[in-house]
Amino acid sequence: MISINNLSVEFSSHPLFTNVSFVINPSDKIALVGKNGAGKSTMLKILSGLQLPSEGNIGKPSDITIGYLPQQMKIADDTTIFEETKKAFKERTSLEEELEALNRKLEDYEDFESEEYTKLLERIEYLHNRIAVDDTSNVEAEIERTLTGLGFKRSDFSRPTSEFSGGWRMRVELAKILLQQPDVLLLDEPTNHLDIESIQWLESFIQSKAKAVVLVSHDKAFLDNVTKRTIEISCGRIYDYKVSYTPFVKLREERLQQQMRAYENQQKLIADTKDFIERFRYKATKAVQVQSRIKQLEKIVPIEVDEVDTSRLHLKFPPAPRSGDYPIILEGVGKTYGDHLVFANAEFTLKRGDKVAFVGKNGEGKSTLVKCIMGEIPFDGHLKLGHNVEIGYFAQNQAQLLDESISVFDTIDNVATGDIRTKIRDILGAFMFGGEASDKKVKVLSGGEKTRLAMIKLLLEPVNFLILDEPTNHLDMKTKEILKEAIKDFDGTVIVVSHDREFLDGLVEKVYEFGGGEVKENLGGIYDFLKRKKLANLSELEKSASVSKMPTPEPASTDLNTDSESQRPPSSALSYAEQKERDKAIRKAEKAVKTAEEKIASLEKRQQELEAKLAAGDASSEVLDEYSSISTKLEEEMGSWEQAQQNLENLLNQ
Known about the structure:
Residues 2-260, 328-541 form the ABC transporter domain. This protein is 46% helix and 18% strand. The chain has helices at residues 40-48, 81-86, 91-107, 115-133, 136-149, 166-180, 196-208, 220-226, 245-280, 287-299, 366-373, 408-413, 424-430, 447-459, 477-489, 501-504, 526-548, 564-567, 576-615, 621-652, and strands at 2-11, 14-24, 29-33, 55-59, 66-69, 184-188, 212-216, 229-234, 237-241, 328-337, 340-350, 355-360, 380-385, 391-394, 465-469, 493-497, 510-515, 518-523. The two termini are 52 Å apart. The strands form four sheets. Strands 5-6-7-3-8-9 form a six-stranded mixed beta sheet, with helices on both faces. With 654 residues, the chain is α/β, with parallel strands linked by helices. Among the domains are: 79-172; 250-299; 328-534, P-loop containing nucleotide triphosphate hydrolases (Rossmann fold, 3-Layer(aba) Sandwich); 568-652.
């Protein structure tokens, strides 16, 4: 379907790819892997047509459709979430126009045996099928399923995109791309802004609905679940494996061992050849052999070793003061912002040495509770830190707190103590700051590089309670493994806020789920939690199915709030279109109630003025007539108000 032929790319005379060739077939699910800077994102840009190679070409059919999600992109903020997502279907109009033009051409066609006529029929059939798939009767339902799958609530659909963070707006762009159902889907780190449930939904979508997919991700579990082929970019070449990520790692290790043996043999050959040349360079009887060896040496193509092996490097947190038996105790902790409840009545106790995960959809309070623990925001309830607790906190904005005026090396040297100072270069190399990179000023680093540097700094601080908020977003798999092993060996207490299942697996023994204003404790690891949650969801579906067969009783409101929003039933029972119509009717009813109340207030005010005149002795016919008219109108408006109020209550209780 797409053919990459002898592709070469250079940046400032530095070769990124050299004579790379491979083919993307229909239905291929490909993981594009390699260390940072290998050229993965560049390859996706070339495949999408946004960047041209220095040499070579990309062969693809003229009618192929490609959807590309980059790591960063400019996003317009001129409409609502739903309307922005609906822009995904703008191609439908052009398809209909082309179909109409081809049908007109077909009417005048006479050569029914020609190849052109056959191609015309095939194109018309293709357009019919595409339009049938994009049938506008299913558009709103498809948008609704995709947005909710990616973590949006139905109440978010009518909100402006400008109210959402960059991560949430990236989800909108992802939704638009998925809804277009392109022939080839190119995704660059799609899970960075998704929670666990949204990642699982995306996995299901790719498995069941996507066609060809090429993706870059540092989420090992995600790659294993959705890809069947792995292409590694290394040293300007590619290595194509017809397996998913985990089998690829084993095959890659075997290749590296072979590569290292070949490199060592070649180095020995070079050394022996140079030695022979030096020993016999000035002997006339060996002149022919020396010249032959010189030519042989010139023809040798150096074998490159992919990367420095850091597999034996183990980071270990420095010794820290022993904390009390219970580093943290929460009793009835809750947080609200105005009328918005984030969570309430959070209660749990962590023992010294516990390693736990905070999981749940974005916006449900994970980072908020962390801020409560850190004392950054006020909260309800009681939260007590144990004796001698020293917290090491990695926030999502940790990179912004670095001193930008010093170098990478000095940043770490300033916090390193003891024997660890002799290993600073090794540690920086493991986190991709090897060689000259360690001498860079912090201010010139990218956002991802600053995040990695902040993580190294935290690793070297003497603490006994670690709180890590999304620590893996900018770390590659090798670095994540090093960090994971360091945390496993850490003898203090750990809270990890993360959506990375592979990182959490084997690291935590307890999971706290945030959702629906609650914080629920789940014993066991992350996959134990996901398994139970899946079973729970299935039982809820079965329960819903059985209930749906019974007559639906009138719901009884138990909400003590009196505002209209709080009295409305959960929108999950309604489709987006139904919810939209219902909200419109409610707004109309609320407006009718308000209008009636304003009229009543105005009439009552005038009635009081007339009563004051009558009390003062002004009983003229004009005053009496107006007073009588006002009293009649007041009764009529009271009746209108009662009717409007009853109509509103009926809508709220539907």
